[in-house]
Design goal:
Chain A: Belongs to the transketolase family. The complex is a heterodimer of chains A (about 325) and B (about 280). Chain A is an alpha/beta fold. Helix content of chain A is about 40%, strand content about 20%. Chain A has two domains: about 170 residues, Rossmann fold (3-Layer(aba) Sandwich), CATH 3.40.50.970; about 130 residues, Rossmann fold (3-Layer(aba) Sandwich), CATH 3.40.50.920. In chain B, the strands form two sheets. In chain B, strands 1-2-3-7-6 form a five-stranded parallel β-sheet, sandwiched between helices. Chain B has a two-stranded antiparallel ribbon with strand order 4-5. In chain B, α3 packs parallel to α4, α3 packs across α9 and α5 packs parallel to α6. The radius of gyration of chain B is 18 Å and the shape is globular. The chains are: A alpha/beta (about 325), B alpha/beta (about 280).
């Protein structure tokens, strides 16, 4: 089994900051907007190097989404930055009408997604954003897994014409994807080959899936781990090809099981190849205060939870 | 100097278009459309400096954004009669597969429209973004926007109003259609907003009133003054005092025709008050 190791941990939001800084140097049409969270979104480097292309909006996310839509008229490629909660639910109608329905080339970049922002609690955590955004016609939804992939995704979406939701987080997580790996929107990445179960994971749960696969391997279970960094458009073929071999699947995400990656996968399977599936996701609940590790343990979003789900789904084959 | 009689004749035809469009599909918003007919005609026939044809980026030309998208009938009529798309297409207003959706959208690729509107309160933010893009592009053309007065009850406007002055967006002229009516009654009955002039001024805007908002000469004079105020570090607000339903006597001075179509008899009456000038579509 191919195994993955890491030498460094970093937050995915810093990958966004690094990608944005690089875009600042390479693409003169890229502009950035922020609603009073520059430091949290790691946007300082871009701002220092391109002050004329940065718009500090203040604490006014609705206005930010509208201004971003307007900036596209004139050929700019706006990247908005705020927490995932304030990038989606708070401004859903602004995104829906002024960006998605209007077909505007806005990149909605959302940090502190999921439970892992930790102690701030449920008002600042969001476990519904993937569902909200994937339901908008034409919206691309991306949730990269580590620093390198978040940086690559940030750079890649500038070359894609159309609205994108890019979701990342606050905690330091292992860097295990190659720094030079090109990011292809909608193209899943198979991390390990396996024959007994498919594990498709997104975001922070990809590393947890790899950790789970090591434990499973020791128990004689061969897991195929797939990194689904793009939830929409979903790589149906990668999922179907894998379950053809394994016959069962576990989906893992830092999100509500309602509306998340798991439901998207279930739709594909129900249409093309009904397959036993278990969901590693939160169960229709808000989060709460705590450390990221405590929260991921309490809400069942770590390697242990994935191992349990695998054992359950294999018995359903 | 534009020929005022020609613009008035143009407006008469636009009024016919509005009530014919709304009557045909028995839906749509004639009241606010009629109230802004003179403004739209002045804008597209004289005020806006536009290029031939249409492209989304609009670099090197003035831009206009309609925030209160429900007055799409007047927008569509004036766009068509200003050459953006065939006038005959007005026949398709609100019909299945039309580019002339109930509320304006870019989704079907209708030339002249750069943003979807209808869900209220979003247009000023968009106009500000477009104005800031013009500054980045060293494009000295202006951005115009139109908003309902009732629409200012949406909070996003006040985020935008605060931002525009703070960031010195001085290539923007936002006009408020001050007809003092909204769906449930007069704005004073529904939610009194006090002095809009005082509010905009307190937020750092330059404000002018056009007291006769249904008089083309007054509109041209007022908008010229507004334009002269641009480039001075502050955004410009025009309070356009209009009469909802203007030009059709039984629709005037009431919110009753905000979103209601005339019946056959009412249509005939309205058309008789506005004889054909440019030719019906």
């Amino acid at each position: 089994m191919k195994t993955y190791t890491y030498t460094e941990k970093k937050d995915t939001r810093s990958g966004f900051g690094a990608g944005l800084a690089e875009l600042g140097r390479t693409n003169p049409n890229v502009v950035a907007l922020c609603a009073d969270l520059i430091g949290s979104l790691k946007m300082n480097e871009f701002i220092d190097e391109n002050p004329e292309r940065f718009f500090q909006i203040g604490i006014a996310e609705a206005n930010m989404m509208g201004i971003a839509a307007g900036l596209t008229i004139g050929g700019k490629i706006p990247f908005t930055g705020t927490f995932a909660n304030f990038s989606t639910g708070r401004v859903y109608d602004q995104i829906r009408q002024s960006i998605a329905y209007s077909g505007k080339n806005v990149k909605i970049c959302a940090s502190h997604a999921g439970l892992t922002l930790g102690e701030d609690g449920a008002t600042h955590q969001i476990l519904e954003d993937i569902g909200l955004m994937k339901m908008l016609p034409g919206m691309v939804v991306i949730n990269p897994c580590d620093y390198n992939q978040t940086k690559a995704a940030t750079i890649a979406i500038a070359d894609y014409e159309g609205p994108v939701y890019l979701r990342f987080g606050r905690p330091s997580v292992p860097i295990f994807t190659p720094a030079d790996q090109k990011f292809e929107i909608g193209k899943a990445i198979q991390l390990t080959e396996g024959t007994d179960v498919t594990i498709v994971a997104t975001g922070h749960l990809v590393w947890e899936a790899l950790e789970a696969s090591k434990v499973l391997n020791e128990a004689g279970i061969s897991a195929e781990v797939i990194n689904i960094h793009t939830i929409k458009p979903l790589d149906d073929k990668a999922i179907l090809d894998s379950v053809e071999k394994t016959g069962c699947i576990v989906t893992a995400e830092e999100h509500n099981h309602l509306g998340g990656l798991g439901e998207s996968v279930a739709r594909v399977l129900a249409q093309h190849k009904p397959t036993p599936q278990e969901f590693v996701a939160t169960n229709d609940t808000f989060g709460e205060s705590g450390t990221p590790a405590q929260l991921m343990e309490k809400y069942g979003l770590n390697a242990n939870a994935i191992v349990k789900a695998v054992n359950k789904v294999i018995n359903r084959k | 100097m534009p020929n005022i009689k020609e613009l008035n004749d143009f407006t008469t035809q636009v009024r016919r278009d509005i009530i014919r469009m709304v009557h045909k599909v028995n839906s749509g918003h004639p009241g606010g459309s009629l109230g802004c007919a003179e403004f739209f005609v002045s804008l597209y026939q004289d005020i806006l400096d536009t290029k031939d044809g249409f492209d989304m980026d609009g670099i090197g030309e003035d831009l206009f954004f309609l925030s209160n998208g429900h007055i799409s009938p007047v927008y569509y009529s004036v766009l068509a009669r200003s050459g953006y798309f065939p006038v005959e297409e007005l026949n398709t207003f609100r019909l299945l597969n039309t580019r002339l959706q109930g509320h304006p959208t870019t989704h079907e690729g209708l030339p002249g429209v750069r943003i979807a509107s209808g869900s209220l309160g979003q247009g000023m933010s968009v106009a500000i973004g477009a104005a800031q893009a013009k500054k980045l592009n060293n494009d000295d053309h202006l951005v115009y926007s139109l908003h309902g007065d009732g629409e200012l009850q949406e909070g996003q406007n006040w985020e935008a109003i605060m931002y525009a002055s703070a960031k010195k967006v001085d290539n923007l002229i936002s006009t408020i259609d001050l007809n003092q009516q909204q769906i449930d009654g007069s704005t004073d009955d529904v939610l009194p907003m006090g002095s809009l002039r005082a509010k905009f001024e307190a937020f750092g805007w330059l404000v002018i009133d056009i007291e006769k908002g249904n008089d083309i000469e007054a509109i041209l004079k007022g908008m010229a003054e507004a334009k002269s105020l641009t480039g001075n570090g502050k955004p410009v607000c025009v309070l356009l005092h209009t009469i909802m339903g203007n030009g059709i006597d039984f629709m005037m001075h009431t919110h009753a025709w905000h979103g209601k179509a005339p019946n056959d008899e009412q249509l005939a009456t309205g058309l008789a008050q506005n004889p054909e000038t440019l030719g019906d579509y």
